[in-house]
Amino acid sequence: MKVRSYKVLLIALLTALAGSNAVGQGNVGIGTTAPDESAILDLSSTSKGLLLPRMSLSERTKISNPAKGLLVYQTDFMSGLYIYDGIDWSSVGNTEAKLTAADNTVWSTVGNAGLNATSNFIGTTDATALVFKVNNTKSGMIDPERGNLFMGFRGAQISTGYNSVVLGSLAMQKASTSGNNVAIGFQSMFSNESGGHNVALGTGSLAANATGTSNVAVGSLAGYKATGSGNVFLGFQSGYAEQGSNKLVIGNDVNRKALIYGDFATGKLGINTEDLSNTLNIKSSSANSSGLRFSNLTSQSPVAASNGKVLSVNTSGDVILVNDKEGSVTQTTSYWNASGNDISNANTGKVTINSGLQLSSLNNMSDKILGLDNSGNVIAVDKPVVTSGGGGDSGLWYQDSDGKIKPTVSTADIYTSKRIAAHGLDLGWGGIKFTELNSTYANPFPSNGLALSLDEYGHVILTVNSDGGSGSSGSSVWSYAGNILRTPGDDKVVIGTGMNTLPDGFSLYVKKGILAERVRVAIANSAKWADYVFDDDYKLMPLNEVEEFIERNNHLPNLPSAQEVAEGGIDVAEMSAKHMEKIEELTLHLIEANKRIEKLEKEVEILKH
Q: Which of 151, 264, 368, 438 is most buried by its number of CB atoms within 10 A?
């Protein structure tokens, strides 16, 4: 068949030549008696044209050893005339032609395969910079001559600087004339015009700095309005409005003082303060506290012999060196040694007090005497009770033979005697002990709603039991009636430790979870359930739109994302309704699909007959 086709083509060509109007010296004319001298074949017609070989892209690329100048018409993809220049196929008159992976002379918008990293690339083959544009606006550049790398919409759009790296939309957008800058992030170094050797990492970092040099800003909005040079800003909004130079700022909120603030020019540093009056300045979080702690040097650490000098502070809080008031400035042996709240003297000798001894913790001792405990410490003790059974003025109480304390006067006298307080018995802390009644008592009485308590003077009084009981009042934390335990409606109940943040809108907060045989969640009304899906006016999202939504968001429509669930949790009733909504939507899609299947089956059945 192939030989026969060649014969037919040859006969047709000879017939055309024989029927031509003219055959000149070295050229042929078809449809003309005067073929052009420059053309070997001159075709002339007002109703017909020249028909070139037509083939698909796949067929064209399979031509073996195409001759230079070979011309064909491609029928698929970017259709048109293509000519072989001896190396590659090129589109004729179609500057926007895009080739698929079968021909790698031009990059495809749908991807290329079978590439050779040595011969296939996007770029230039000379010193011309590679420029990227979006909406015909400069949005990237790789410049070998000036050493720049720009990438981002309008990033360094009109910059004439050098040796800089710019990544981010509108980053270093002004006409920078300096170089050696690094700007990464949206609008980072936006206003830079002549400053060099800056590093800005983060959205809006050094955005307003037009002429500053040698700055380092790391963090979103770090140094946003800063105008100086030689600054180092670390953290979100650190150095946000700093107008000085050579500053060190470490912080994370423009509304709070920086954790670290320093000045490179003076060599001074502040912690929690911008007061740089000294080389190191520390402001503690509470009054009368230095804010300085030595973790491995405490009051329990071994000490060296005193040199007569110690560190102290003056009225301004400056650390100074002063004489050791607990030691000797001439001897290496200390007279007094302090340990915690104790002070001792190990030297041989007497302690003489000429101007009196005052014990500030022991006063109003008209009914007390001084004594010693087993360790030799001076303590205040009560006067001893009377050991006889008689009355008189020797004491108000006595101890009988059984060890019991009894009054030395009659019961009536206890209430009337001016020698006894109005409430009968005044005791210090821990003055009453019940030896046979304690917290482990196995048979306590049921609560009657009342309890013993103390008033502001220390008097024992009878009050309502705040833990419940028949006498509980509205001010109680809990109330108990029947089988119901209640707490006021605005109170929050927390079970477990470590939960310091309690979102509003809830009454019970449980740390480690809840285990139950059954859980029933109440719903306010039927509108909260998902049966609205079956309403006639419900707009069911088509499956193709559902697919597009999933591809964009990676979750189903009208359901929270994994990130949202991790941050805010889920409402069980609301989530159950959402699940039912998806089940009902899926059911409607299945019903519709089943109708189409049944319709197609009927049509197929009709076609069979």
A: 151
Tally of CB atoms within 10 A around 131: 13
Q: Is residue 255 part of a domain?
A: yes
Residue 471 is given by DSSP the state T
Which of 422, 441, 460 corresponds to the end of one domain? 441
Please say if the pLDDT value at position 335 is more than 70: no
Question: Same structural domain for residues 177 and 258?
Answer: yes
The residues pairing with 162 across neighbouring beta strands, listed in sequence order, are: 179
> Residue 212, exposed/middle/buried by CB under 10 A (0-12, 13-18, 19+)?
buried
One domain for residues 135 and 281: yes
Are 240 and 224 in contact by the 8 Å Cβ rule? The answer is yes
Instruction: Decide: 450 and 460 in contact? Cβ < 8 Å.
Output: no
Q: Is residue 464 part of a domain?
A: yes
Structure tokens belonging to residue 525: 């009304």
Half-sphere exposure of 436 (CA within 13 A, CB side): 0
CA-to-CA separations, 132 to 88, 180, 502, 604, in angstroms, rounded: 25, 21, 51, 55
Q: Which residues pair with 322 in a beta bridge?
A: 310
Q: Tens digit of pLDDT for each residue in 536-592?
A: 888 989 989 989 998 999 989 988 888 888 887 888 888 888 888 889 889 989 998
Measuring CA to CA, how many Å separate 370 from each of 217, 220, 375?
69, 69, 14
Residue 152: inside a domain, yes or no?
Answer: yes
Residue 185 covered by a domain: yes
Say if residue 414 is in the same domain as residue 452: no
Cβ-based neighbours of 370, under 8 Å, separated by 6 or more:
362, 378, 379, 380, 381
DSSP H or E stretch at residue 149: strand 148-151
Q: What is the domain extent for residue 29?
A: 1-50
Structure-model confidence comparison of residues 16 and 198, the more confident one = 198
Residue ranges of alpha helices (H) inside 24-136 are: 57-61
The pLDDT, as a whole number, for residue 426 is 62
The upper half-sphere exposure of residue 315, i.e. CA atoms within 13 Å in the direction of its Cβ, equals 0
Backbone angles phi, psi at 563, to 5 degrees: -65, -45
Which pLDDT band, with edges at 50, 70 and 90, does 431 fall under? low
* 88 and 23 within one domain: no
Of residues 18 and 296, the one with the higher pLDDT is: 296
Which of 248, 266, 285 finishes a domain? 285
Q: What is the mean pLDDT of residues 231-258?
A: 94
Q: Are residues 527 and 493 in the same domain?
A: no
Contact 61, 49 (CB under 8 A): no
Q: Are residues 182 and 136 in the same domain?
A: yes
Total of domains in the chain: 6
Q: Say yes or no: 138 and 277 in one domain.
A: yes
The answer on 168 and 146 residing in a single domain is yes
3-state secondary structure of 495: strand
The whole-angstrom separation of Cα 54 and Cα 88 is 18
Q: Which two tokens stand for residue 497?
A: 């430790």
Cβ 480 vs Cβ 468: under 8 Å: yes
Do residues 172 and 183 lie in contact, with contact meaning Cβ atoms separated by under 8 Å? yes
Residue whose C-alpha is closest to residue 180's, from 169, 192, 168, 170: 192
